[in-house]
Amino acid sequence: MYWPALRNGFVWDDTALVLRDPLIRSWRLIPESFRHFLFLDATASDFYRPLQRLTFTADYALFGFDAPWGWHLSSILVHAAAAVALFFLGLKLSGGRAGLAFGAALVWAVHPLQTSAITYVSGRADPLAALFGFAALALALHSLDAKRPLAAAFAAAAFLAALLSKESGIFALVVWFAILAFRRAPRQVWGQWLLVAAAVLAIYLGLRTTAQRTPPPAPPITPLAVRPILAARAVAEYTGLLLAPRTLRMERDITTTPQRTPESTLQNARRREYQTLLGVLLVLGFALWLRRSAPPTALCLTAALLAYLPVSNLFSLNATVAEHWLYIPGAFLFLAIAQSIRWNVAALALLSVWLGALGLRTFLRQPDWRNQRTFLERTIAAGGDTARMHINLGNLELSAGRNDAAVAQFREAIVLAPEQPMAWFGAANAAVRTRDFAAAREALERAQSSPLLAPDVLQTRAVIEHLETGRDTSDQLRTALGLAPRRWDIRQRLLQHLDETGRTAEAARELRDFLAVEDFRADSWQLLGRFLEKLAQPTAARIAYEQAAARDVRYPFPRTPGLGPMR
């Protein structure tokens, strides 16, 4: 079903987590990768997922950036392994009914809702968390049933690996204690597993709390009165996607935010009212199903509920609905459904037809992720007509040198979200490209409302001043760097500016001081080598290039003794 994904490239956050992450470029940087959150040289995040980064390190060593098919193959294999782990877990939860466990795992494996976690390379955290989480639960059950201490030790390691893959990997520990409660495990067993859980959480929190991160801006808090409404709508939205995943896209919104026209705003509001009512009915139906189910089915439903609650909208999130959030809860839900059906020839025939339709939809979904442009345009066409998509499409047009097309996309984003700072910042960059400096300054005034963009606004203003007057703008760049001292892109621009204005020795000195603090970027050492070559220091330059090569297994330029890289 996922074979067409091997033709795809890198899209969306892959530019930050794959192409721009310096910590995936060498095996010797693995210890360093455990000391940093994701999006190291991009937007700040709360994502601590070192095992995802570790798999990217392997992919980079094997395939580099010129063979994206290898990265996609790795994601597919991890998903397949997670399906196998789900099969063994299903065996344990269903009392050894292999056909039932196989059917549930197969439906889960081929369901098109999973594509945003598999076809999208940066989505690999979900399959990794599922793989280790399902394996941990199966091993823990095996240790409980067969009294195998070694299986319990492997389960503990898998519980930790699930957490290090993605924060939602905590589901495995929570579900495990639900299993102990359903089985009415003796106090001694509870005590042993509480100690294991405490050790796992202590190791995880010790790694996470000591890792370096730039705190992201706090997301807007959803009012308590609104959360149950959004939760009900999300249940209805996800149910439709599970049963008939006809329209799939990355951006989904179940709020009543204003649309392009008053008529479409009113129509969307009415649809959301009906969706809220449907969601309430579905929640009541789920509660009734849970109450009347046999213990094995009730356990799977409880596990699905526990895995789903964190993304249910009962807590403030950075989105209201995301297809990949159902990746793990859906697995337990399919196990529960499989145990609830009275299997006969008609049921098997219906399942076969549905499974074939799911597989075909998954197969046809893969080209939607072919490249960044295809991904953005098809997302918009499928209903994801959001400001964020137009902003990214505008940035893509800018990088391609299509300035007029970029301006049009940023205008679309501003129509959809007039107060979106990123849209105004993109419009400012487009205006700089066309030398419309007055428009650029006006857009920057609107963009600076976001503290997150303050360093970027200062950088762009420095560029405008330099283009207009030719004056030295290093002071503005230093001010921008002071607002975000960990931003390598700002520091790199400052150093290059110093070099271009004849202060190469100053640039080299500042870069050496920086490398004494953060020495893991191959790009930093390569830049130092270029400065030192300019300063007629070939021996020191060669050492810098060797340091760059030591931090990038695919160092881009061949080297010759005493000379540095040759283009």
- The chain-level structural class is mainly alpha
Total E-strand runs: 2
Average pLDDT works out at 91
Number of domains: 3
Q: Rounded to an integer, what's the Rg over CA atoms?
A: 26 Å
**What's the SSE pattern?**
HHHHHHHHHHHHHHHHHHHHHHHHHHEE
Low-pLDDT regions: 557-567
Task: Describe it.
This protein is mainly alpha-helical. It has 3 domains: 3-213 and 287-365, no CATH class; 386-472, Serine Threonine Protein Phosphatase 5, Tetratricopeptide repeat (Alpha Horseshoe); 486-567, Serine Threonine Protein Phosphatase 5, Tetratricopeptide repeat, CATH 1.25.40.10. Helix content is 66%, strand content 1%. A two-stranded antiparallel ribbon has the order 1-2. A hairpin with a 3-residue loop joins strand 1 (559-560) and strand 2. The radius of gyration is 26 Å and the shape is globular. The protein starts with 13 loop residues before the first helix and ends with a strand.
Describe this structure in a few short sentences:
The chain has 567 residues and is an all-alpha fold. It is built from 26 helices and 2 strands.
